Amino acid sequence: MLGLELSFIWAGIIAFAVLVYVILDGFDLGVGLLFPLTKDEKERNVMMNSISPIWDGNETWLVLGGGGLFAVFPLAYAVVMPALYMPIILMLLGLVFRGVAFEYRWRTERWKPLWDMGFFGGSIVASMCQGIALGALVQGIEIENRAYAGGWWDWLTPFSLLTGVAVTVGYAMLGATWLNMKLEGRIQRHMRRLAWPFAAATLIFMGLVSLWTPFQDPEYFRRWFAYPTAIFSFLVPGLVLLAAYGLLHGLRRQADVLPFLCALSLFVLGFVGLGISFYPHIVPPALTIEDAAAPDSSLAFALVGTLVLLPMILGYTAYAYWVFRGKVDPEEGYH
């Protein structure tokens, strides 16, 4: 019983780390996605200044989620990695190249346009690959004798491509609402205008993915349309509509904070919907949280360190956002 409880506690911790990564790194990836839509270099500079104090800290949560999966759910890690090698490697390369471009564009004038393209390229590759990996996981991974039994290209399907585009568009929406909140003047008005089409596209893609997901596996269909989980089939879409109304209303009223909070809420609700579909599996359709967990002693040992580390990461993250709260001064920034 203790091992069962520990495995579900750890599943919650990893799910929390992944969610925090998605909503935090999502908006700074979105900033990179919006680079080609800017009007001049001054706009791009102030956009980067808005994320320069916090972008690398956001990626801490990816390390925590991936490292936690390896430490406490080694079987899940051993199955997921061979199934998703290509999108995961491309995602990491995109994040690396994006980080290099972030640093180098401030050190040169002649090659700044090249690094701007690199920043955009790394952002779109990382975003697309995260969405594709998510779609491949949702559609199910073939497992035989506790090992991956599928092919090299099983991750590449129409559904995974749809989720890749959906996540990318959603990140662009997050980026636009973040910049609307952090900037002022001409560029704020520009980003507020961009937020409208990205918000509408995100809602459309969320609807398409939600309608397609129950048909990926009979268990998903049963969970969404059978009592008691069917309650969430009505509750979650209702909350999505409420968040969508807050987002569009905030943009129409030219609010600063409300659109960003509502955009984050859409991602949280989408994550909750996935959780309802997955539970109690960690790798659908066959590998449950309990089956994939490490021995009880390993779970308990790792949990002790995590209970010390997690509040430190949360504290650092909250402090960084508090210190750099408010509007960005266009005359100051990263150098």
Q: Estimate the helix proportion, in percent.
A: over 70%
Which strand order do you get reading across the main beta sheet?
A: 1-2
Average pLDDT value? 86
Unreliable runs, pLDDT <50, ≥5 residues?
none
Number of strands: 4
Biggest sheet, in brief? 2 strands, antiparallel
Percent of residues in beta strands: under 5%
Order of helices and strands: HHHHHHHEEHHHHHEEHH
**Count of separate structural domains:** 1
Helix/strand class: mainly alpha
Separation of the first and last Cα atoms: 54 Å
What coarse outline follows from CA principal-axis ratios?
globular
Alpha plus pi helix count: 14
Query: Over all CA atoms, what is the radius of gyration?
Result: 20 Å
Explain the overall architecture.
This protein has 335 residues and is mainly α. It has one domain (2-323). Helices cover 76% and strands 3% of the residues. It is built from 14 helices and four strands. It has helices at 2-33, 41-51, 55-58, 60-72, 74-83, 85-104, 112-138, 158-182, 186-212, 218-225, 230-252, 258-278, 289-292, 296-323; strands at residues 143-144, 147-148, 281-283, 287-288. The strands form two sheets. It has a two-stranded antiparallel sheet with strand order 1-2. It has a two-stranded antiparallel sheet with strand order 3-4. A hairpin with a 3-residue loop joins strand 3 and strand 4. Helix 1 (2-33) packs antiparallel against helix 7 (112-138). The longest helix has 32 residues, at 2-33. The radius of gyration is 20 Å and the shape is globular. The chain starts with a helix and ends in a 12-residue tail after the last helix. The mean pLDDT is 86.
